[in-house]
UniProtKB/TrEMBL annotation:
GO terms for molecular function: monocarboxylic acid transmembrane transporter activity. The chain crosses the membrane at residues 20-40, 60-84, 91-109, 115-134, 146-167, 173-198, 253-271, 283-303, 315-332, 338-365, 377-397, 409-429. Pfam families: MFS_1 (PF07690). It is a multi-pass membrane protein. Gene3D superfamilies: MFS general substrate transporter like domains. The gene is LOC110979499. This is Monocarboxylate transporter 13-like. It is found in: Membrane. Residues 24-433 form the Major facilitator superfamily (MFS) profile domain. Keywords: Membrane, Transmembrane, Transmembrane helix.
Amino acid sequence: MGERATLVANPRPQTVTEPLYGWVVVASSHTVFILWTGFVKTIGVLLPWLTSYYHTDALALGWITAAFCATNNIAAVFGSILSVLIGSRKVAILGGVIAASGLLLASVSTSLLQFALSLILLTGSGFGMTMCICKVHLGIYFNERLALASGIVTMGVPIGLMVFPAFAELLRFTYGIQGTLIILGALSSNLIVCGALLRHYPGFRIHKLGSDRGYEPINSSQTTESPNVFAALKAHIADRLDVKLLARLDMRMLIVAYMLFSFVNDSWMTFMVSNAMSKGFEGYVATTFSISAGCSAVIFSVIQGILISSKFAGIRVVSAMATAVGSAALFLDPLLNSYLAMIVAVVMYGITLAVLNPTIVCMAIETQGRERAASAFGWMGLFSGIFRLLFGFSTGLLRDITGHYDATFILLGVMLFLIVPVLFVDILVPKCRNIVWRS
């Protein structure tokens, strides 16, 4: 039997400078986040035309969107396991091949089912595997400047918001829905190149399991019982998945925060342009709101990275303040009908997007450790994906019931605001226990 390999971290001295190649990893990961956002936004821009193209409604397309965002999250678990078995670079490249293949198949689909399966099973999961590896490599290459590096990487989300809505509208007008999906699939093939650039940090070595054990004597008096076999298999799987992480309060805090933010952000990116068009704005005018949100997020991504890296402000306080600002913008959406008011609202949400994306990544790496970051992102993605599958239909259902997106955006505002207390749960709960114990 071949020996299996796992990554074992060699502790890095604090005096060692962060390697220059880390910025190549940042640029590669930044591109991956741009492409993912571009994919989600393109589907969002095409949403009004997809309903007539496939003779369906917003509820079905809303669930499909939720489902491929869910598989994007769930695939992080498989990405983390495969990275141990075959190497992280190969996993990232494989994810790129799968993602691009899904979009190409979706472009030739003749039914809603074919379209859904292509995006859900292939494109969503392919992106998820690659994005998980990108986050893990940030923790491998960066220490003191982790917040800044994470901010630059996740800045790909607002840049995608700025570039792809108008680009997708132009592609749809010029080439139609099928042509748009083909071009998007070709662009997504760049994930393969990005994955090839994600090489291991030299301080991480491959440790062969079993290479240091030697031969053990066989005790012929022992018999192998099936319960013991199943117990050993169960323990092995639990070890591979690092199930013990779920017992940590800070890990559960991260899961809930990521679950809520992922749901809100993916829904916002999907329905924002359609929401603006339902208020009477033309398609190209509606895309300017995405550009405004993207500009806001780019600026505040840099600001938050500087503030946190310089220790000027705590990561949780900055995250809570930014979350409250974005929640207020979503709450006020039903009252916004003028162009200026919509611009202000999307700029406010851009602040949330700029801050929460990188800070959740940083908190996961810092609280769970760099060696367990892959497992942490895997569990966060798994629970987030399950949540999307169970409740992803709600946004489209509210649109079909009410005839507008007001109720949808109020729901998103409530969910986003719940993140504020969640961010401090792992700090407050132990303090409350101490107070109760003393009393």
